[in-house]
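Homework help board

Subject: predicted structure for assignment chain

Our instructor gave us this sequence and asked us to write out the predicted structure in token form, then describe one feature. I got the tokens but I'm not sure how to describe them. Can anyone check?
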Amino acid sequence: MYIRRGQNWSICIDSDPYAVMALFLRDLAGLTHTEVGPNSTLAHTVKIRGARWPTHGQIKQEWDSWWQSIMHGPTHNQLESTHDLPLQLERRGYPQLARVASAHYGQAIVFADEHHREFSRAAVEYVPQRIQELEKILLDQGVEHAGQSNTETNIRVLQVPLSEPRAWLGGGGTIVASHNLLRDGAAFHSYMEPIASVMFP
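My token output:
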């Protein structure tokens, strides 16, 4: 986890195995990126076994609700937080999604673990620069003097393995960014500047 704080703002760039598993299960459940979540496929093709789940509509609703809770909730930057995921989903009222997770839990946790390890290994090469660039964007917009607000705005950038070098405002101050975008300083700036203007009007 990489963090930078200012007078009334903070920036965090991290990887969240929960979010990665959610995207993996989205594909396994036969949901498409045009239906829910970031409008991009995973960087690695997920082999969907069998036909689409018969409860497709309910899984879509459950997945979208789960994704929103991830976007608005705390970062789960330890893989241990995903243990017993099917049971967690069942208890939270997502029975059909729990069935998908139970059927493919092994695949999902291996996928999330591989991405998390890669982030932990390589992030030092580019994440500090991205935080510095994002801080400059915020300062250029005058966030340090935005009414001297007592409310702190927290920006959380979650790196996920998506095929397109893009970023999406996920809600709750969370930005979902592909790993390729975070590695490209110019592209990162072009996405973060308009997103920051929305968060700090």
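Reply (TA_rk): Your tokens look well-formed. For the description, you could write something like this. Helices lie at 17-28, 56-72, 85-91, 95-122, 127-140, 179-182, 185-199. That's the kind of observation they're looking for.
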